[in-house]
């Protein structure tokens, strides 16, 4: 993950996986359930690809949704400006009782709405189960869930991004186990006593420069049994 142009994976391409590994390592019960689901759904790492089996990993997708809620790729405000001639055909734009005049910029902070307890109770907690409810409570959260924005200008690559994250996380869990370092490094997390919302030690800290930047996390990966030999065979075959 170093120089651009060399074919290396760039840090910015791994923000969702980094956040998911960070929270999974700090929630052992979630980690075990996630690993069990992936390892029971597939018979080899080569089988982990886009398709019905991957789509059937409900807990995996719930964890992805919850990670994207807690740590969206674009946590800031995506501003929109009311066009000067937009009111001629459609009339004035009214939001929450306020008339938005032409030339006015409006926007919603993604991080703020993702942590609004009106839509997501206990908003700073990692709770994948909130995406698995069979009643209307899960459906009601969807309008407030916008890691890729919403509407006609939302991210065109959203479906591809979900698929890539699902495949990457599932393959990592198939071939490896991972945990926090023995020295309990909290690189990537908040620090007690820090201001500006940086004091939550278990929260993966985001820095908004249109898209997210971050530090860490530090994790220890171990091969799982002899499953890693599949990777060696694939390398030799290539």
Describe this protein's structure.
The two termini are 22 Å apart. The N terminus is likely disordered. This protein is α+β, with helices and mostly antiparallel strands and 238 residues long. α1 crosses α4. The protein is globular, with a radius of gyration of 20 Å. The protein is built from nine helices and eight strands. The chain has a single domain, classed as Cytochrome P450 (Cytochrome p450, Orthogonal Bundle). It has a two-stranded antiparallel ribbon. Strands 2-3 form a two-stranded antiparallel ribbon. Helices cover 35% and strands 10% of the residues.
Structural class: alpha+beta
The CATH superfamily is identified as Cytochrome P450
Q: Strand order, main sheet: write it out.
A: 1-4
Q: Sum up the overall morphology in one term.
A: globular
The H-and-E topology, N to C, reads as HHHHEHEEEHHHEEEEH
What is the CA–CA distance across the termini?
22 Å
* Total DSSP E strands: 8
CATH architecture: Orthogonal Bundle
Question: Hey, roughly how much beta strand do the residues contain?
Answer: 5-15%
The Cα radius of gyration reads 20 Å
CATH topology: Cytochrome p450
Number of domains: 1
| CATH class categorisation | Mainly Alpha
Helix content: 25-40%
Output the number of helix runs.
Answer: 9
Which ranges are low-confidence, i.e. pLDDT below 50, for 5 or more consecutive residues?
Answer: 1-7
Summarize the main sheet: 2 strands, antiparallel
- Rounded mean pLDDT is 79
């Amino acid at each position: 993950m170093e120089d651009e142009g060399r074919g290396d994976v760039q840090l910015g391409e791994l923000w969702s996986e980094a956040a998911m590994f960070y929270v999974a390592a700090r929630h052992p019960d979630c980690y075990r359930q996630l690993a069990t689901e992936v390892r029971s759904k597939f018979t080899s790492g080569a089988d982990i690809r886009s398709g019905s089996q991957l789509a059937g990993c409900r807990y995996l997708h719930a964890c992805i949704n919850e990670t994207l809620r807690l740590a969206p790729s674009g946590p800031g405000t995506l501003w929109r400006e009311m066009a000067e001639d937009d009111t001629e055909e459609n009339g004035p734009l009214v939001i929450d009782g306020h008339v938005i005049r032409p030339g006015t910029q409006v926007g919603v902070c993604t991080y703020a709405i993702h942590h609004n307890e009106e839509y997501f109770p206990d908003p700073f907690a990692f709770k994948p189960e909130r995406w698995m409810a069979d009643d209307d409570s899960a459906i009601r959260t969807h309008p407030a869930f916008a890691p890729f924005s919403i509407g006609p200008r939302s991210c065109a690559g959203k479906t591809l991004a979900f698929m890539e994250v699902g495949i990457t996380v599932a393959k990592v869990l198939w071939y490896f186990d991972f945990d926090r370092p023995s020295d309990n490094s909290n690189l990537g997390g908040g620090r007690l006593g820090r201001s500006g919302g940086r004091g939550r030690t278990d929260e993966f800290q985001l820095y908004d420069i249109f898209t997210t930047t971050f530090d860490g996390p530090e994790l220890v990966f171990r091969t799982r049994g002899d499953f890693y030999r599949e990777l060696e065979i694939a390398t030799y075959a290539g």
